[in-house]
Amino acid sequence: MKKNRFLPNLSWSALLILSLLPILFYFTYLLAYGVNVPFWDDWEIVSLMGHFYAGNLKFAQLWAQHNENRMIVPYLISMALYRLTAFNVKAAMFAGGTFLTLSFACFTYIFFKRHSLSWKFLPLAYLFFNFADTQNILWGFQMAWQLVSLCFFASVACLEESGDNKTAFAAAIFFAVLASFSSFQGLFVWPAGFIYLLFNQFSLKQRKIWISAALLSGLIYFAGFSFHSTGGPSVIYSLTHPLAIIKYLLIIAGGALLFPTPLHLNSLFFIARGFIGFFILGAGFLATFEASLESKKDKAFLLPGSMGFFSLLFFLSASIGRAGFGVGQALETRYSLYGIFILIAIYLTLLEKIRVSREKFFFFFKTFLIVLVFQVATSLQWGIIEGKSRFLYALKGQEILLNYPVVSPKLISIYLYPRPNEIPPRAAILEKYHLSAFSSWQSRALLPAPPTLEKLFKKNPGDWLIWRLLSTIYFYRPDLQKKYPPIPSETNFAREIVSWANKRGTQNDPDQALLFPWKNSLSQINRALR
Questions:
Q1: pLDDT-wise least confident of 91-105, 123-137, 374-388, 480-494
Q2: Cα(305)–Cα(346) distance, integer angstroms
Q3: How far, in whole angstroms, is CA 126 from its chain's centroid?
Q4: Per-residue pLDDT averaged across 159-188, rounded?
Q5: Selection from 472, 447, 456 nearest residue 521 by Cα
Q6: How far apart are CA 367 and CA 305, in angstroms?
Q7: I need a surface site. Which of 240, 347, 393, 432 has the fewest CB within 10 A?
Q8: Which is it for the CA torsion 325, 44, 59, 213, positive or negative?
Q9: Residue 262: pLDDT over 90
Q10: pTM of the shown model
């Protein structure tokens, strides 16, 4: 009987497709749930764009601290993207996804230098593009962290080719410098990359050059640095409260193995999450330590050793810098990006260990593989639920942005930025240059108003703002468009939609919070239409 040569090819093709599917899922998810509205830290870039359009943008503004970060590289990338896309925040989200895809390409290159394509690669692909990381996926500003990830993996990939290859070594330094001025976490590329220089075939001169470049980058980074403007409680607070650091460290690490967060947080939840964090940190530390030791004999351990060290440094720095906020703040899903990397480091270390000693480590590998399957399945379910929630949340933020002159500061602080007094002048920049949500025709379109209202608007311009608020709600509410088509009479339509708004200002409706403060004005418009 002849051996069927088609089946191995079919199996290889199926594995390749399954490995690439997570990338398709990632960008489909982004298309489905991404919304073009600035959120929180995105408003810092709005200010920079305002200076750019006014012609007075200075280097000092790009170099200025954002919390503990120097972000000149992502700022320049964001501004270039926003100049081309009329400040479409989704462009930064897609850029972040592109950076993550390129990171995966670098990671895959290193992996396949020593392994062939098999089912053991699949968990790595699904971990890399993981929906536990919803905040980073659907938040344009977080593109900076995905850029740091790309710089880390690109630098490591270059170090894989270094030794006698001077160009590759110079490229590794270049990517480490880019990371250093993308975010505070980018500085960790230097010590994580040094594992390669310590255990691989690098000369003493190259090690000195790497250390010198790291020190120079650090000196430049911290020149004029204010440790009182790091976006959180004083570092001194954390250092004098070691128990707070430990609690925060355990909770933030537990986010890598995502499991459902209850509506009402309780002590049992934090204990469970802390226990999981303890497991991840312990396994991550052992895997990093073991991989670093084994790197002397087997270069396949260099990647997990470097990844594990990078992740552990991130966990420690985040805990020191943010512990004063309390453990509740550690539940933010954006921290899971680097947490997922430590899961990959553990997996790779076990994969290499069973290659050397299968009988001794296969049980641990199989157990950890089950944990990862649970993590991927749970994160997929969580990501869809959270994606829908953030989509509706962002749509409401878009409505509020379009009507910023009449919206209450409380709603602005909930949906756009915690310092609402800073939003009107920045929103005015977007409106003036037709950027972000103001680039759409709907943002400038008004519902047809009968002559009666036009007279009223001239007499009382404030009522025109209320009419604009109604227009925005109408254009983003298909149910209203179906129920109140703007025909056949402008007067009848205006009367119906104002009557609806007047009632919904006191009843249960998604836009009640927007309408209620203007109930008196709506009543006045309603009387004018009679």
A1: 480-494
A2: 9
A3: 17
A4: 90
A5: 456
A6: 21
A7: 240
A8: positive
A9: no
A10: 0.89
pLDDT (mean) for 53-80:
90
Please report which confidence band the pLDDT of residue 118 belongs to, taking 50, 70 and 90 as the band edges: confident
DSSP string, 432-453: HTT-GGGGSHHHH------HHH
3-class SS shares of the chain: helix, strand, coil, % to 5:
75, 0, 20
DSSP single-letter state for residue 328: G
Angle between helix axes 302-322 and 336-356 (nearest 10 degrees) is 150
| DSSP string computed for 110-139 | HHHTT----GGGHHHHHHHT-GGGHHHHT-
Predicted pLDDT of residue 216: 95
Q: CB of 261 within 8 A of CB of 332? A: no
Distance between CA atoms of 48 and 38, rounded to whole angstroms?
A: 13
* CA distances (Å), origin 259, targets 231, 249, 256, 271: 28, 17, 9, 13
**69 DSSP 8-state letter:** B
Confidence band of 6 (pLDDT split at 50, 70, 90): very low
What is the number of other CB atoms lying within 10 angstroms of the CB of residue 491?
14
Mean pLDDT within 464-491: 80
What is the pLDDT at residue 5? 46
